[in-house]
Amino acid sequence: MKILVLGGDGYCGWPTALHLSDAGHDIVIVDNFSRRQIDEELGARSLTPIAGLTERLRAWHDVTGRPIGLEVGGLLDWEFLSGVFRRHDPEAVVHFAEQRSAPYSMIDRQHAVYTQHNNVIGTLNVLFAIRELATDCHLVKLGTMGEYGTPNIDIEEGFIEIEHNGRRDVLPFPKQAGSFYHLTKVHDSNNMMFACKVWGLRATDLNQGVVYGTVTLQTERDSRLVNRFDYDDVYGTALNRFCAEAAIDYPLTVYGKGGQTRGFLDIRDTVRCINLAILNPPERGEYRVFNQFTEQFSVEQLAQLVVEAARKLGITAQIEHLANPRMEAEEHYYNAKHTRLLDLGLEPYYLSDSLLDSLLNIAMEHRERVDPDVIAPRVTWSGAEAGELEAQVAA
Amino acid sequence: MKILVLGGDGYCGWPTALHLSDAGHDIVIVDNFSRRQIDEELGARSLTPIAGLTERLRAWHDVTGRPIGLEVGGLLDWEFLSGVFRRHDPEAVVHFAEQRSAPYSMIDRQHAVYTQHNNVIGTLNVLFAIRELATDCHLVKLGTMGEYGTPNIDIEEGFIEIEHNGRRDVLPFPKQAGSFYHLTKVHDSNNMMFACKVWGLRATDLNQGVVYGTVTLQTERDSRLVNRFDYDDVYGTALNRFCAEAAIDYPLTVYGKGGQTRGFLDIRDTVRCINLAILNPPERGEYRVFNQFTEQFSVEQLAQLVVEAARKLGITAQIEHLANPRMEAEEHYYNAKHTRLLDLGLEPYYLSDSLLDSLLNIAMEHRERVDPDVIAPRVTWSGAEAGELEAQVAA
Fold first, then answer.
1. I need a surface site. Which of A33, A214, B21, B226 has the fewest CB within 10 A?
2. Distance between CA atoms of residues A273 and A288, nearest Å
């Protein structure tokens, strides 16, 4: 199948492009390298040494004999985007090409505006490109479990049947996003649902949980194929960051009480979920939502799992509860459904000792690349300086 | 109270600015004249001859002795907007400054992108301006009843208590907006709710119904104060458009079956609702929603009321059911709550024979200004040409 992978140079996009190519699809990556540019802005870099995209693509061709196409540009540029659709006439579009860090979106006004403009208008352009140039094309769009927030009821997959005053309807599940980034995914979901309804497009919205891991069956075939591993305060997410911290004897940075519970998944499942969605497209006009995660953990639980795994490798890791830079419930009910991808055949890689071992070993291997100055949170939701927060908590 | 009226040159903004000035507030209008520019683009104009804003403000000063300030610029321009906040240090901001036509947002990609960018980023800038420069300021933001769509359950005011699998929570009411314009109001609502939560802002989201009428107690004091009256296919809304049509012997253009039911209100209630919201601000950190309308009607009912009122004035008006250019349910359940503004003391102007008389007389007075070529719908939700739609229906 001819597939565009928008944002195919990023943490999830790159291994997805390789997995889909390996599965026999004809892949074209579309990327403007904004993620690499943001690394420069933040003075951060991947724990793992990643090759440039051209070198990555050459390596994939060397190893497999399969070419992956490349189009360099951004989704805000309609002339570029419409040209890409005309040149490739895709049957599916996998859309990762959004600014995906919550802290980045909360740095200040410019970063909030950049994130909302880039994500919402970029996706709007993709919807119009499909409508005008590839109406039968299946849009597989990455949403986030963070769209739902932490309601005091079970979280369903996109829609919920509500009984109210003696009447019933199935309605979009109420959203309570926790950052300007997460809000863009809510906005995108609303725009996509409407576009499917009025234009008969087909779309799958994958409300993904927090991804951990870095290696997939494809990325480990050659050192030039190695994937990103973010550990910094802005792009690093819970489990991966904890492993990098353990590797350099930095305390594991748990925000607040650590009772924040979320859905998590292994990056090897991310890439398989995308292919499952592609192989089982919705009907024309259908907007469907899958909750894409495999297990729930609290942040504290994850930190403790890393402490234990590190101990077995002879590393003494300690947990430090920092003042929470975010505004979020630290103890709450959480029960999110995630059966639709299992129904399509997903057999998850559950979080295991061997995965934790592998991640810790990768972090140890590259520990000299870790910069301890980009780990402590610098961005707060309230706008207070991170130092002020610590003082408030100490007082 | 020192109040900014963003979009104070528009159909609702202008009479609101006058009403608030008349009520003793100190008003500054902020406008970039985008609405007048769009009239040029569409080859349409207000049925009523409206003066330029400078002349309008001079007239108000002549008539009342009260000045209204003016700042010319747009909300996307942060340097301008932050300067306005610094110069005026507002206690309340009334925000009408959005592209507010659903058909305009559906013309094509550029118009959808313009509408979403202008509205969402403009409102985001207003939220940051309040946070950074006037944290105690009350944001009174115009939303729309169209955010809710037409669910098969009663519509509550912003939030709904949901019981699900034996647990309960009060959550944002599910949204099902019906155009890229209506979607911007949903996006704004989500952004505002979040900003109130994390920064402790105070905001009132007024989900307004369809406004009819043109005259208020203030606009009728001088001919230079006269308000807009839109009747064209893009900006004209049901009741006002029907009156203009009756005045030139044009059939009343009902889209589809006409069973589409919505909340409506008199523009004299719009201006009073805004003042009620301002005089009763929410607490810091509170995001509240009022459904701002006074009566429900179906489009067919409204058309029939206009036919009857016209008959009494000796005008024979006829209803024509056009192929519906929109994608919407034409027969549906509709019961929307609207008690919160009544609780604050609103005594509505219900739709009356005298209001219909007055509107029809205004339309008759200016009937030579009506251009029959801008009445039939030119914009369709499906993207089909309007002519094709008619052919489909006839077939």
1. A33
2. 14
